[in-house]
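Below: protein 1.
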Amino acid sequence: MTLDPAQLAELETTLGADTLHELLVAYREDLATRLAQLRTATDPEAIRHHAHGLRSGAASFGAAALAAAARDVELGGGSLAAVEHAASAVDAALGARLA
């Protein structure tokens, strides 16, 4: 599972369905932006910064595979391909949930 259903249910209980929906829409847009920024980053500090942003957002919504892949890049290992693959799965899950 790319998004943790229990974490999303807890957020929905805490925030309400409408607010969670709005946050997921915003997160989907942010995911695309941060991924594009990571793709074009060449400076190690910029790479770490953008990977950290991807990691934080992913963790907020229970996207563990994306958070782990971004963490690996943030720490100087890992691959952009792994981040891309995980981000694609998260985007698909968000699209299905928001439909």
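Below: protein 2.
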Amino acid sequence: MKNKDQIARIAPILFGFFIMGFCDVVGIASTNVKADFGLSDTMSNMIPVSLFTMFLFFSIPTGILMNHIGRKKTVLLSNAITVIAMFLPLVEYNFATCLVAFALLGIANTMLQVSLNPLLNNVISGEKLFSGITAGQFIKAISSFCAPFLAAVATRHFSNWQHIFTIYGIITFLLTIWMSLTPIEREIKPEKANSFHDVFRLLKDKTILLLFLGIVFLVGIDVGVNTAGPKILMERLNLDSISAGYGASVFFAFRTAGAFIGIILLVKFSPKLIFKITTVTTILALIALFFANDKMSIFAIYAVIGFSIANTFSILFSMALKSNPDKANEISGLMITGIFGGAVVPFLMGITSDKIGSQNGSIIVILICAIYLLFCAFAIKTSVAESAQKSI
């Protein structure tokens, strides 16, 4: 009976990770918004910019907020903001409302990423916590994988891709009710949040700076492939936006598979060695993408990239925490802030693509991000990388 009660408390928290995956709809959204309003790449890529910029401004304030209202209420607040964001484009569909909606989704997703893992710690402790977080990340990956298919369902049954927002809004609303009715017995009071100055002064440490920029560029690659992937298929193969969106599903499917295989590999092999091999593989795949002109080749390249970068975030994050264990809380907040790379990189991709006149401009920007990761893989201290292995 006790196990059933614990499962009942854990289940709504784990399904909260499904909502966390909603931010990956930016790839489909930017592609469709570009087509709907006849926008340039620079303008359409403002969709991911409006979302991921929020991670820069709201990660640390969310930690402060949790001290005042608790973890569960912070998650519920993020869900409420998500519901508003999802229904906004349905009330009035134009480019401005899309930007506002995705900015709100960015705020909500930031709050969720900062508060959901600690909330999970309220009901799971010890060694089981890692399994719980892994399960949550798997559910998040499923959400990312499903986005193109949900867009296709919305188009097929409601004659409008925008009703993916209706689906997301209803899911979030129902989960919010479920979570609000679920008691959290051990509402743990978070430690005192640090100021912006306390967190950002960590960047004086060269190792932390190196790894922080690694997070920035890694998320840039992730969001960049998600955003440019459908556009490359449309440009080279004349696919419609819905069919081209399946390229993102291939990317997310293999990223999910790579994450689970990585759990095994990271126990047996050095994280630094895996970091080097997977980064080189990513670079080679991106170079091949310049020359791929058939559907299967492009899909295969997306699969390789997704598989290769699947564990890079956990490697970078663990290395950062192990580099200075006494500052683990501050480092964690700083690394989450680095997710704003998902705003900067797509913006540069849009400008470069418009200048060149093709999506090859986007690939160039993503390739530069991957080259930085390769530099990071060889520049990071071996001792830091080896100590991170124990935490993965």
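The chain is about 80% helix and 0% strand.
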